[in-house]
Amino acid sequence: MLNNTTGFPPINIAAGYTDLRRGIDGLASIVKFNFQLYPYEKDILFLFCGRRSDRIKGLVWEVDGFLLLYKRLELGGFTWPHTKEEALEITPEQYQALMQGLEIVSRHQIREVHPQDLH
User: Fold this and answer.
1) How far apart are CA 17 and CA 6, in angstroms?
2) pLDDT tens across 48-68, in order?
3) Which residues pair with 48 in a beta bridge?
4) pTM confidence score
C-alpha cells in the first residue's frame, strides 16, 4: 500500500521526529494544531517518522473515517528530514525516492556561486 501512492495526489510529511505511540487522534491533532492543516480532507496522505527511522505511520481521511497505516522496514531506514518542524508537501517522485531510502530534502542548502567568489 505505501509503496504505491497513485491514489494520493497530495502527500505531506511531518519533518522532524514524531512519537509513533500516538494513534489516529494524536496524529490528526499534530496535523491540525502543529501544521495548521485540515486532517479531514479526503485522500491526503500525512506521513510521520519516529526517532527510529525504520518505521513510519500514515494517516488518511476516507470520508467515513481515518485510515492509519504503519510500515516497518526489516533492513535499512528512511532518510527522513529531521531538521524542520513543519509539514512538507512532496511530489510522487519524491515519495518514491523516500520509499527507496533516498534523501529528499538536502541537509545543506545549495547556494549560488559567482565567478568573482572563486578567486
Assistant:
1) 26
2) 998 888 899 999 998 899 999
3) 57
4) 0.72
Cell of 116: 568573482
List phi, psi (to 5°) of 72: -125, 125
DSSP secondary structure, the chain, as one string: -TT--TT-S-EEEE-S---TT--HHHHHHIIIIIS---TTSBT-EEEEE-SSTTEEEEEEE-SSSEEEEEEE-SSS------S--SEEEE-HHHHHHHHTT---S-SS------GGGG-
Nearest to 62 by CA among 46, 44, 47: 44
Measured distance CA(97)–CA(11) in Å, rounded: 13
Place of cell 509513533: 20
